[in-house]
Amino acid sequence: MSAYQNDIKAIAALKEKAGNSWAAINPEYAARMRVQNRFRTGLDIAKYTAAIMRKDMAEYDADSSVYTQSLGCWHGFVGQQKLISIKKHLKTTNKRYLYLSGWMIAALRSEFGPLPDQSMHEKTAVPSLIEELYTFLRQADARELDLLFTDLDAARSAGDRTREAEIQARIDDYETHIVPIIADIDAGFGNAEATYLLAKKMIEAGACCIQIENQVSDEKQCGHQDGKVTVPHEDFLAKINAVRYAFLELGVDDGVIVARTDSLGAGLTKQIAVTKQPGDLGDQYNAFLDCEEITTAEMQNGDVVINRNGKLLRPKRLASGLFQFRTGSGEDRVVLDCITSLQNGADLLWIETEKPHVGQIANMVKRIRQAVPNAKLVYNNSPSFNWTLSFRQQVFDAMVAEGKDVSSYDRAKLMSVEYDETELAKVADGKIRSFQKDGSRDAGIFHHLITLPTYHTAALSTDNLAKGYFGEDGMLAYVKGVQRQELRQGIACVKHQNMAGSDIGDNHKEYFAGEAALKASGKDNTMNQFH
């Protein structure tokens, strides 16, 4: 017997026990409402989705072709429509997640208005968006099941037992829209205690996976901007521990932590690490500092010096008080960061790079895996990369290395439309198409995400609509570019009243008031024009 049938039976027993005062309660209606609200709390969601991520990680370890993907969503409705689309076109949500981008919260969700990605937005906006996303995903479940219940009732009324059994099976085997969210906590919004407190709020809202970066919290920059400042490993590991304690306190024992390193592009540190003996972690961090050897006589007022192997070294210090790393040390620092994080509580890695290059990523992962064989990445397929130019240049360079004639191409101008139909451009597009497969096979990428794609899609679609609607096309711009496409592509929210919950509400009114219910979905509802 299915969970749905068990609920009907259990509620019927409660009704019988309650006596005549429950005479109006229909056990099947109550069971329907239960199945439409499978997840009671955010912690229920976090525990459910953590198990999914752990299963997916194990499956990737066994077969790197089964990687996972997500898109960043800045509003619950955007996340909901993404999952509805996935279920419609791909028939399953398996291996598809959501990404919550700190960049998009800063740009779109702060009460200050649009902000740069520098941890200046309200920290409460992060758990609020997690809760909002799951509210919309739960509503997607309720809506889709409501349609199934309507079809079930229609099949029963028609006496179509075959159809009834088919629909009942779909209800019993229903796949939820609830999927894991990888949630960006930036650099923790403060010290380790602040990180712990915010992590708790994020987990309580439903996050099973928290991504944290090794930048200085009050100097945090977007991963694709200049001026990034990292912290010594011990500081970062304390925040990883803080997140783990938050998971354990709330009973999400298999919560996932993504340790992000910005060291590839970060040339600065705010502090010199504490070191107790040669070769320890602090000493290794300090070894990357750009220093000059000096004598005691050369020391100046206010100098900070390091004693290493009996030599006095003066780190280069900027007017801001920040210390500078040696040029070219970024990749070595990334490798040390990653190994250290995995050996001290992190589950996955995020290496922020300056370009999408499988070979570059693979070289770093190969070194990391010498110490941690199952190391795997969450990778940002970033909109900050000029994908077209980068891959065309990669193909150009490969052609040069192979001795091929490239005289008809200008490497600096390969973005130009004049190259769109060339063989070079077609090869580059093929490499972009296979980038995720190639990266997961060759560079240990378990999860591919795009941080802020829906920021760009909202801007592009709005530009196209505004250009036509306020121009010569007028209403045709909307009808031809939006509504006609919705109808022909089967976009569910063309019936926007239904998407917003009108039919669910009508059914509830009938549950509550029977024949006296005043319903909105009668013959005069204009949504009936859309079939």
TrEMBL record:
Signal peptide: none
Reactions it catalyzes: D-threo-isocitrate = glyoxylate + succinate
UniProt entry keywords in alphabetical sequence: Lyase, Magnesium, Metal-binding
Residues at the catalytic site: 222
Binding site for Mg(2+): 184
GO BP term, pick one: carboxylic acid metabolic process
InterPro entries: ICL/PEPM, Isocitrate_lyase, Pyrv/PenolPyrv_kinase-like_dom, Pyrv_kinase-like_dom_sf
Obligatory cofactor(s): Mg(2+)
Alphabetical list of Pfam families matching this protein: ICL
Domain of life: Bacteria
Protein's UniProt keywords contain Cell cycle: no
One MF annotation (Gene Ontology) recorded for this entry: metal ion binding
Note describing how the cofactor binds: Can also use Mn(2+) ion.
Protein name, per record: Isocitrate lyase
Native species: Azomonas macrocytogenes
